[in-house]
Alpha-glucuronidase
Amino acid sequence: MNAEESVELEQLMFVEEPMDGDDPRVHPAWLPPEAFRSLGARRVLLHGEGLLVDTVLNEVSRACARYGGRVWHSPSWDVDVDLVLALRDAGELPNPSVEAARAAGEAALVELGDGGTLGDEGFVLARAGDVTAVLADAPAGLLYGLFHVVRLCAAAFDPARPPERHRPALRRRMLNHWDNVAVHPVMGQVERGYAGGSIFWQDGRPRGDLARVREYGRLLASCGVNAISVNNVNVARTEALLLTERLGDVAEIADALRPYGIRVHLSVSFAAPVLLGGLATADPLDEAVRAWWAATTRRVYDRIPDFGGYLVKADSEGQPGPFTYGRDHADGANLLAEALAPHGGVVHWRAFVYNHHQDWRDRSTDRARAAYDHFAPLDGRFRTNVVVQVKFGPVDFQTREPVSPVLAAMPATRLAVELQVTQEYTGQQRHVCHLGPWWSEVLGFAPWGPGGRTIADVVTGESAAGGGMVAVANVGDDLFWTGHPLAQANLYTFGRLAWDPRRDPTAILDEWITLTFPPSATADADLVRRTLHEIMDDSWRTYERYTAPLGVGFMVNPGDHYGPGVDGYEYTRWGTYHFADRDGVGVDRSRASGTGFAGQYPPYWAQVYESPETCPDELLLFFHHVPYGHVLHSGSTVIQHIYDTHFAGVEEVTAMRRKWQTLTGMIDPSVYERVAERLDEQVRCATEWRDQINTYFFRKSGVPDERGRDIY
């Protein structure tokens, strides 16, 4: 197919052929063939060797075959080209224009003052005459450079484009899959999965659709993700076997992802020496336990040489850990780190540890305090290949909560911030809730005060040696990967923020829109772009408006966490309370009269959070129990704020649905219909949230809505 030929809309928006003869087609997400038109219509020379270079060659060849361009693989051609993709240490070519382009790239590096190195994943893009050059030190950099050219479209070939250098700020950009090998009787095939079954596992066995796994790896590489764990952090018996007798199942996934530079990690049970090795103990200081982990890990690397490492949830929500043996988390993490170190592996040790048998009557116990209390005293005791993985907030991925103080409390430890792409508490991929702005706020938070170092600085570390960013994945075997087509943007945004945590989330969303809905494949590109921004830009705050108010959190139905359940967790063991009574609402976490959680922050924020008068409105009820008549900085009372925001949230969702309807006939019909159906559900659910929350607080407070709206 040449560049002048037209392509039917459905062909543009879907993979042309099933990736397996018996399976349905899947949506190509942000890599539809049309996104490659600008690249594929040009003459391209690829110079270098290696597995990932072969991947680049395959990508370029497919694009050129579709859109009429040509591709050559070095070193034997003296040809005219528009684009050269070259490894810097590859030999010279008998092509003056190509060598001039390479020289321009080298000169750009000097001009940019970099010292001449790009690292394993970096690249430089520069123009020389009519040729665009992408240079990299290593094959992974060439792969990322290729996808950058795809994102830029025709702009990559603009004669006036200045040179640019790109290197990831974070070395490890990781997704955690909460996929179960065997179907869990309560959580199913994927814990907190909202897009169908696992793409890796099915009914206790490998799913076997490695073509889809490869396509997934392609999507991840294109947005910058380079690591993935393939099973649930809650490791049951079947999942534990992946470490030993079922390691071959993991190796098959690793083989499928390797061509896109994705390293596989494995969630393991801390009790594995007992469960799998027949030992009487899993004590991290026991010599037999250390020897078992060393030998087992060696066998893992014999089978998967580029294996990334282990992910561990220990002493949390029933998972075994070092507490059983009177040891601490540093003892436990260092045991696995010692086994991984000879092979270059890392252990991600989750800081999500708390008392999940709390007495709701006891207001001195505070789940929010737990991670800091457990981990801050251990700073400096973890080996260098341990990454302590910290949830971005102190409780549990709520729509609004403060940034975890642990991220400021462990300067001598490698820390990763953990986000949740799967929308457990943010609409479960039935609601539009673009999380990029929220994540960007977290990454830009300065724990030591305005103008100081940020969370992005903490997870980047010196010379990019920090712990990086991790997120719980949101894909499944749904045709649209994430169930809701617009939820694909959250996955894409995570990858792009992990590459550069200081990027503008609105610009990233714009990037995703351009790729997913290419202008040449839509009836009115400007209308599509404008409408999607209007729907998605503020959708996280819209979701916040019609759910739990002012940072109080939860108020969800127990178990599935979907929809309003104001008192659903109020008298349970989980420590997720709002303490609403006739006089007020919120949790007192001050040092003066509450749990003292506010004091876990560095002095600037400890002082801000300590008083209701200085605490930001959006976090007021997280830190303070206040009367319903308390006046916010906005000028509204707490109770009127609750009423106003919940009415406003429903109005905004209704407007989202109305705006989406203007795109009828503008985009692929299957995408349109799926989003329309999800928006209908969002309007229904938002209305339910509004009516239950407003009625609950009206009945508690006895204060009527000053605007006289219907409250039941």
About this structure: Residues 380 and 403 are 22 Å apart (CA to CA). The mean pLDDT is 94.
